[in-house]
Amino acid sequence: MSKTPAAPASSTDVGEIASALDRVAYLTGRARQHERLMALAGVELDRAAAALLQRIAESEPLRSGELAARMSVEASHITRQVQQMEKAGYVTRVPDPDDRRAQRVQLTAAGQEAVDRIREASRRGMQMALADWTPEELHQLATLFHRMVDDFVARAEEDVALSPRA
């Protein structure tokens, strides 16, 4: 089954989508929203630590440098966050099977429980925000969001493949 090329996107529609996404990012990224989410989850983590903990949960154990690259931050930032989360019992360091001198970071049971609680609190907040939407509207939104993310990822990979080598 071949995909029919879509008509060129209206610059007005693309601008409206970008504006809406900016607003969603702003609203979900506010300190007060983070504090509310952490209170609902019963977890005490700052925004950076919560984001890192969730990233660790999404992958196999990784070296700190790999985590830094995936999050587009300096390695020293990850090292500090990992140390704090290790003291809190959320992560542990394990030997790297490819290089026993190196270590990888993995979740502990307490870390997985914290991630699960954060995700559940986030889902409850999303359900409250979308309570008036019909099941059909929710399905359509979910389908379109997944398609948009897939297209963003594909485009990012194309951009990397097309970029000139230094």
Span between N and C termini?
A: 39 Å
H/E series = HHHHHEEHH
CATH-defined fold name of the largest domain? Arc Repressor Mutant, subunit A
Strand ordering within the main sheet: 1-2
Query: What does the largest sheet look like?
Result: 2 strands, antiparallel
* Contiguous runs where pLDDT drops below 50 for at least 5 residues: none
Name the shape in a single word: globular
Structural class: mainly alpha
CATH superfamily of the largest domain: Winged helix-like DNA-binding domain superfamily/Winged helix DNA-binding domain
Overall pLDDT metric = 87
Based on the structure given, which CATH architecture of the largest domain is correct? Orthogonal Bundle
Number of strands: 2
Beta content comes to: 5-15%
Q: Helix segment count? A: 7
Helix content: 55-70%
Overall structural domain count:
2
Radius of gyration: 19 Å
Name of the level-1 CATH class of the largest domain: Mainly Alpha
Pfam families: MarR
InterPro entries: HTH_MarR-typ, MarR/SlyA-like, WH-like_DNA-bd_sf, WH_DNA-bd_sf
Domain HTH marR-type: 14-150
Protein name: MarR family transcriptional regulator
